[in-house]
What we know:
Blueprint: H1 5-8, H2 21-33, E1 39-44, H3 50-62, H4 76-83, E2 89-93, H5 100-110, E3 120-125, H6 132-143, E4 149-155, H7 163-166, E5 170-174, H8 179-192, E6 196-197, H9 199-209, H10 213-224, E7 229-230, H11 232-239, H12 244-255, H13 259-271, H14 276-295, H15 307-318, H16 322-340, H17 345-357, H18 365-377, H19 385-389, H20 405-421, E8 441-442, H21 446-454, H22 458-463, E9 468-472, E10 475-479, H23 482-486, H24 491-505, E11 510-513, H25 526-536
Helix pairs in contact: 5-6, 8-9, 8-10, 9-10, 9-11, 10-11, 12-13, 12-14, 13-17, 14-15, 14-16, 16-17, 16-18, 21-24
Amino acid sequence: xxxxxxxxxxxxxxxxxxxxxxVTITLKNELMAGRIAHAYLFTGSRGTGKTTCAKILAKAVNxxxxxxxxxxxxxxxxxxxxxxxxxxxxxxxxxSNNGVDNIRMLREEANFTPAAAKYRVYIIDEVHMLSTGAxxxxxxxxxxxxxxxxxxxxxxxxxKLPATILSRCQRFDFxxxxxxxxxxxxxxxxxxxxxxxxxxxxxxxxxxxDGALRDALSLLDQCLGRxxxxxxxxxxxxxxxxxxxxxxxxxxxxxxxDSSSALETIDRLYNASKDMARLCEELSAHYRxxxxxxxxxxxxxxxxxxxxxxxxxxxxxxSTPLPEILHSLDTLQGALDKxxxxxxxxxxxxxxxxxxxSPELDDSNAALVRRIEALERGIHRPGVSALxxxxxxxxxxxxxxxxxxxxxxxxxxxxxxQVAQASIAPPEISQTKKPLEEGAKRLAEWPEILRILKxxxxxxxxxxxxxxxxxxxxxxLIDAKEMAFELLRKSAQRDKMREAIQQVTGRVYKLGPYRxxxxxxxxxxxxxxxxxEAEEAGIPVTRT
Length: 544
């Protein structure tokens, strides 16, 4: 009979357990030192190795030839436990054996000495399903069990366990396994099965598994039933995924307020038998990626996506305001909740996309924040033009320049007032000459930053007109006149400058003045200076 992959490739030693070194190393050290506890508690999300480690531990405590904390797998006890002939290892499913009578029977059996092994080991899975009476019946035995008994409790919901149970166990927390480690294990299993798993296909399976290696192996098993050459297309067709291009198309439709295009895309996907709940989950995950890119300095380590897709997401994130991303996430999560509560999945998906494309139809707080942000930036969008017309906005010149005397005097008054309020230069605006490092590059988005800054203060935008900026590590170095830097002495205006830079670039930078490695103006030759002074005094000078 065919054996599924997650059972066939279940680790037999601690060294084969993937992504849980905080558990396996500790258990191996305790076994080698002979420090065996009477009760263990394994907690964590599904598919992360709790039951697997429990079985390995049950073998290890009874193994006749322990190898560096790992069971040998060859002695009669290890072989008997593997085949099921050794009856001293008892696995109990607490979901179906959760009554007081079941625990009383367990207590009576625990008093008997093991038949073949050294320890009688009870593995109680999903222990949080036990009733209150069953917990009370287990409490005394768990606290002071016979010397030949070891309890291993496993649960995905540790918060449901009584504190009296938690205090009597040695607790180990299992983490979600990183996508890169899951993909590496899938590649190894595929090679052993004489199949080929592409790198991008492995990463996609790892993302879908959400940190659970068992789920990833089940998906790989399903894909191998379709083809021995597991490519990205094979995974998408087998699992029924929506291609990444459709996600970018939908998010661009939301960005452009094109509800017609979004509904046409949904119709094509629905006719292709794509599940709308899965589509909603994937689109929500896509916006989560945009949120991380928008708010973090480097989200590459968190998002397990190909390099070209990450570059594409970065470009989209930088052009999408954060309130729009958060509104999209909030709306899609609400639609997904309604889908799982019995609502028509296609209708819920279409309603969610219409709300995202037309935020004026949504009365939620996230939609209001998004619309207010659009008004503050002064960007014309469908559905908000009437509200904009209700707010009087003064006409401003397209390219503000400091030519007229009145404008210059007005700006000087602003500068003088702000200099008087803050006499100490802020630490972010260094007054020393900072040389431009190798690899620094010009900030191409600087005009866009000044345009956003103009909505906050025309004076600041005008002062920096004609300036340029460079990215140098964690600094944005601004090449402008000294008078422009005086405007940044006030903390509120510095913060606004940094916010504008973060809004466009998606990163948080420190500010500083730009100084080239070599000064642009060469020093005046002393002989030429002396000749000029002589000519002014009326002394004839012959120049060669």
